[in-house]
Amino acid sequence: MVEVETFLKGPDGEFVPLGACHTPPNDLDYIEGAVRVSLDGLPIIGLEEWDYVDQLWCYVADMVTQLSTTGYAETYFPDQSIKLSFQSAGTRVSVTAEIGQEVRRASASSAAFLEAVKTAGTRFFEKMSELAPGNSYAEARQELSN
Fold first, then answer.
1. Is the pTM value of this prediction over 0.85?
2. Do the Cβ atoms of 97 and 86 come closer than 8 Å?
3. Which neighbouring-strand residues pair with 132?
4. pLDDT of the residue at 32
5. Phi then psi for 127, rounded to 5 degrees?
6. Whether the predicted pLDDT of 146 surpasses 80
7. Does residue 146 sit within a domain?
8. pLDDT at 44
9. How many domains, in total, are found in the chain?
10. CA 31 to CA 8: how far, in whole Å?
11. Domain coverage including residue 90
12. pLDDT higher than threshold 80 for residue 49
């Protein structure tokens, strides 16, 4: 089972599930939040790895395209030295997060993983279009729709 969920950091520092957000973030240039990814109950990234979540989602959208074309994609978080990578292995994909000395890795069906990432990413960019209509995420949205 693949779970991908997005949270925005509220003014009080608490993380709010994306669907429960109804007001624009305080700083539209630096939107703080987190993406929680778990595969078969194994957490890969979560709230502790929060960052500029809109930039992170743009990077992940690009990774989806890279994975589809080359079988491998990696990125670093926008403002941290956390490395996230996707590696195709037949009908499965291995997802790895390198957080300092800690390495978190799990695999899932490629189809299930890509569907979950594309759905969560599309949901994020649609919500951001409501909350921050001045920010354009057209290229990232396009990458998720392929």
1. yes
2. no
3. none
4. 97
5. -65, -40
6. no
7. no
8. 98
9. 1
10. 8
11. 2-133
12. yes
pLDDT given for residue 68 in this prediction: 92
Q: What is the pLDDT of residues 95-142, one digit of tens each?
A: 999 999 999 999 999 999 999 999 999 999 999 999 988 888 888 888
CA 48 remoteness from chain centre: 14
Nearest to 25 by CA among 36, 10, 38, 15: 10
Q: Is 40 left (phi over 0), alpha (psi -120 to 50) or beta?
A: left
**Residue at 12 is within a domain:** yes
Query: Cα–Cα distance between 50 and 77 in angstroms, integer?
Result: 9
Does 140 fall in a domain?
Answer: no
- Tell whether the torsion through CA atoms of 44, 47, 50 and 53 is positive or negative: positive
Q: CB–CB of 85/96 below 8 Å?
A: yes
- List the beta bridge partners of residue 73: 86
- Is 142 part of any domain? no
CATH of the domain at 110: 3.30.2450
Taking Cα atoms as reference points, which of 112, 131, 7, 132 lies closest to residue 57? Answer: 7
pLDDT score at 139: 85
